[in-house]
Amino acid sequence: MQVGYYPGCSLESSAKEFDLSIRAILQEMKISLKDIPDWNCCGASPAHYLNEELAQALPYRNLVKAEEAGLDRVISPCPACYSHLKHIHEEVLKETHLADRLESIVGKKYNGGIVSKHLLDFIKEDIGFDRLKSSVKLPLSRLRVVNYYGCLTRLPGVRIDDMENPTLMDEVISILGGEALEWSHKTECCGASLSVSRTEIALRLVNSILEAAKERQVDCIAVVCPLCQSNLDTRQGDINKRFGTTYEIPILYLSQLIGLAQKLNYSQLGLDRLVTSPQNILIEKGIIEK
User: Hey, which end of the chain has fewer CB within 10 Å, N or C?
Assistant: First the structure.
């Protein structure tokens, strides 16, 4: 199986471990990724502040490039990128005026042939749970995980799980043999967009999430968003100083947990790139060796 791939800016830089782990687990399942040729930033977060048409033209161009490459499905691991591509796809199919305007800006027509996928709905709908389960070589037994969905299910155009009580990540963890725990903060915002401009607010929000996870005596938190991962992982030191806490909770991408269950290499999955190391807990649980 070959599928298109849009890494976006984060997975080429600060979230490289997300990119590494996705490529590794899909290769393990004999799925080939083809990057969109000459892709550009989708404009997530800042573009609409500068110019609404720019925010629309950026994802539109990526869709055009994907079509030109002969792709029909494109995985966008970053929820914001996924939402932007999916949203503009739906808008240009509904609004002829918008489609004509974006065609004139980009200089090429998008014919509406791309189906956008996030990692979660790609696993559910294209890989299938049976195939995922058959790839498991080392069940994540005794690993206590809370899944953090954040704002993912509430972004424009996103309809991959229940809006109020998403469960797809929990299903995946159970398939991997881990223990997916119920908890109170799985859809609470982590304040990633305020990390620079209103740092105190972001620290307070992340502290609340980490506190809720600690109450459940978790081994790690699973995420599928680069901004969420960075905010929950890198802020723990500042939060410990600010609030007198002692958090050392590893924040792992769901793809990294899948890779561990597939017995893929620790560094191959980018686990050595995380700020809060999961190494000790993974050794303790017998998932990796010393």
Answer: C
